[in-house]
Design goal:
Length: 408
């Protein structure tokens, strides 16, 4: 009997050891997942895009107007997309509502991430904006978006195997939506542009993503188009909606609101609160658009337009820049029609400008950011306020095509 008890205890000990071994293995296997869940919250960097966009716009009511635009169908392998429209014109709503029904759920669903540039105003560095947008926690600072995109692609190993054996099935690239990109440009100009360049490469060169930048103005779009002179971008401009055939819409008010969904809703609320009458709508719309333009306008396209690089020598670039800047300063007028700057001021400022770029080479002139121009102008003797104004003017000139191509 003692022998039987001993055998039973031995078997039990072996079983316990096996259980411990299995539990240990399961624990080891679970550790990476536990760490991942801790570092990367439930709102994972790449998830169902339809759900992500519903979260981004959950406080908004259903769109009044359905634009006849299909941004996702415009995405190609070799070009990222710029979606341009005025402030509150319904760009985010369009991105949410234009996802085809069969791309919202199931194996064919679009997966991606939504990044909002406006939230860059709530952090003190570009790195914190990127990290909190992607992962929700600052403890993952330093994590790159490329890492996330590669991880998402690696998870689709079955698709990778099928592609490897010659079947027309490949891992799905994640869609990256960068909303209110200009807000990043205004707060972190150099970092935002370098990041946008890298992100675009992950679309056009690495095939890891399909990228859409959302811009409110032509200046924001030009900033991106001037990256490699626009060869990696397509641009889609939202057209003014007519409002025809939409039930429950005040056609006269919508027309006064210039076909802008956000403006229509704002004016409608003010009328309901008796803060405004229909006769006052035109003036209120004009003032509101002007305020939005000031709030959201990017003062300069950061990269140079290709026409400047096409000039045959650095001296011709300097001569053309001098001519264009001087004309721009002389053309500035006040509301009463008088000139903003006196002839003496224009001469003094042009003297500082020419002294600044006298020893610069072509790339130093074309690539210098606005902050660098302001610093160089102050070193040349310009007061700070003057240097800031001239720097913005110079970047605006270089960021746009040469005014008179006949003189090239």
């Amino acid at each position: 009997m003692a022998r039987g008890v001993k055998e039973f205890l031995d078997r039990t000990a072996i079983a316990v050891q096996l259980i411990k071994l299995v539990c240990g293995l399961l624990g080891l296997l679970a550790v990476p997942e536990i760490i991942k869940n801790f570092l990367y919250p439930a709102a994972s960097p790449v998830q169902n895009l339809h759900r992500r966009l519903k979260q981004a716009g959950r406080k908004r009511s259903a769109p009044i107007i359905m634009f006849n635009l299909k941004p996702y169908q415009q995405l190609t392998e070799d070009r990222a997309l710029i979606l341009q429209g005025r402030n509150q014109e319904g760009k985010t709503t369009l991105l949410r509502e234009s996802i085809p029904w069969y791309r919202r759920f199931g194996p064919l669903a679009f997966d991606g991430t939504y990044l909002n540039g406006a939230e860059g105003r709530g952090v003190d560095s570009f790195e914190k904006w990127q990290t909190t947008q992607m992962f929700g926690l600052t403890m993952t600072a330093g994590s790159e978006i490329k890492y996330t995109l590669v991880q998402y692609r690696n998870k689709q190993w079955i698709r990778g195997v099928l592609e490897g054996v010659g079947l027309p099935i490949a891992p799905k690239p994640a869609i990256v939506l960068v909303d209110q990109f200009e807000e990043l440009l205004k707060r972190y100009p150099v970092q935002a542009l370098d990041w946008a360049n890298t992100l675009t490469n992950q679309h056009t060169r690495d095939g890891l993503a399909r990228v859409i930048f959302v811009c409110n103005s032509d200046a924001g779009s030009k900033t991106l188009l001037n990256l490699n002179q626009g060869t990696r971008f397509d641009r889609m401009i939202m057209e003014q909606a007519s409002g025809e055939g939409v039930l429950g819409l005040d056609k006269e008010l919508f027309k006064k609101s210039c076909g802008n969904i956000g403006m229509y809703k704002l004016m409608e609320k003010k009328i309901k609160r008796q803060e405004l009458t229909m006769e006052q709508v035109d003036d209120e719309v004009k003032k509101t658009f002007e305020r939005w333009e000031r709030d959201f306008h990017v003062p300069y396209p950061m990269k140079y337009d290709g026409s400047w690089a096409d000039l045959s020598s650095v001296q011709r670039i300097k001569d053309k820049l001098e001519e264009t800047l001087e004309l721009a300063l002389r053309a500035e007028e006040k509301d009463d029609g008088n000139k903003v700057y006196t002839e003496e001021e224009v001469k003094d400022w042009m003297k500082c400008a020419k002294k600044t770029w006298k020893v610069l080479n072509q790339q130093q002139i074309l690539d210098a950011p606005e902050e660098r121009w302001a610093s160089m102008l102050m070193s040349a003797g310009a007061e700070k306020a003057v240097a800031l104004a001239l720097a913005s003017e110079i970047k605006g000139i270089i960021g746009n095509p040469i005014p008179n191509p006949a003189n090239r």
